[in-house]
Here is the input.
Amino acid sequence: MSGLTIAERSDTGSQTRTIRVALAGCGVVGGHLAALLREHGVAIERSRGIRIELVRVLVRDVQRPRPTPLAPHILTADAESFLATPADVVIEALGGHDPAERIAWSTLAAGRDYITANKLVVARRGEELRDLARRSRARFSFEAAVAGGVPVLRVLRDALVGDDVRAVRGVLNGTTNYILSRLHEGTTFSTALTDAQASGFAEADPSRDLDGRDAADKIAILAWIAFGTDPARLRVHRAGLLPDPEALIAAARTFGGVVRLIAECVRLPGAAIASVEPVLVRPGSRFAAVHGADNLVEIDSAWSGALRFSGAGAGGAPTATALLGDILASPSPLSAPHSRACPDAHDPRPRRWVLSVRCTDRRSLIDACAAAGLTGAGVHADRRTGTLHVLTERCLRTDVARAAALLRARHEAVIESRYDLEEDS
Ligand code: NAP
Ligand code: HSE
Here is the structure.
């Protein structure tokens, strides 16, 4: 950990440390962190004896008005000058690959602590950055990258370090959960997406939320901390809300369920099976009860049983508290990997699935299912939206994927969801 300056004594008589923070990004997340430091800085200094000093802020446009005013001399649009600023901790809330990865690399190589909200960078480069942090004795923390304000990585890493975690699953993307909640209330997809963006929940490129890539990065990070699987090598089966989110709601209406985008990673002997997909769950079930931009993370472990953590999964304020928690947390190393995902593992669990297509040609759907080896699938019609839904019997994910591929050759938008109305979720 980089040396912190002993500055003066706090009200309680203990010595006060000053932590110099350089913040990359002052948008939804970084801007809320600046506001949080401004509002709680004095209280933190009094109670913890730690003064947090914002010494540099990297943005794209230094002229843009910010909700929390910042001294003009600390703002810069130049990544190199930002990195040259003496600081104890660098926080990254930019998003994307570059300059985010460059900042991660040079910060840790210089032995400075690096805290990030950027799941893309952690999922892609986590192991390399962890190794670099170990070599340079710096801290690498990323609680804010998963489930917003829900402190679940710390639980997996610290509280459950002696347990045997078998599965992690949950609603990990606030934007899609907000959109699905609004669609169930009758709002159109375009209005729900616009509102999610205006609320600061969505990624700069919202297709990362909608197609499940954001949730896939998060389940890869959770699996890394829970099972030691390299997040960059974990193969996540991924289906999102696209291309037809409203067809998913039609499927839910047809079968009397609620749609949730659920990410899951299950440890099996020699493999970790990971997925992100829309799931039809029972109304009143624990996943159906996750509303708006909230997240729910469920951990199945051998000794503690099922543990559940829920709360605000997106938005500037909760994510800023996760960043601040990492600034103030005492240093502790990430757990070392103890298993590896088998990259080509297929999910061996038979489950039921729904394929939804906006068409009236029942024959074509039944033929495609039969050609893919699926027997006993029933076709259900939603006349209001002109959508046909094929509900399979229990089968493997690979069989359903084959049927979906055959249907996609004939129909424009085919959307898959898992049918979980008989399960206890
Ligand atoms: P945002 O509102 O778009 O803010 C991005 C900030 O980074 C802006 O201040 C922008 O500068 C700056 N920036 C972007 N590219 C830059 C570049 N090339 N050079 C210099 N500055 C640059 O994004 P956000 O929602 O705060 O998200 C930031 C990160 O936090 C992302 O990795 C995201 O996935 C993650 N995250 C977000 C949330 C959430 O709810 N929003 C929750 C958890 C994690 P300007 O202000 O001048 O444009
Ligand atoms: N876009 C992300 C989400 C932000 O909606 O969950 C929080 O990581």
About this structure: Residues 148, 173-175, 201-203, 209, 214, 313-314 surround L-homoserine (ligand 2) (CB under 6 Å). Residues 1-8 have pLDDT under 50 and may be disordered. The longest helix spans residues 28-48. DSSP finds 13 helices and 17 strands in the chain.
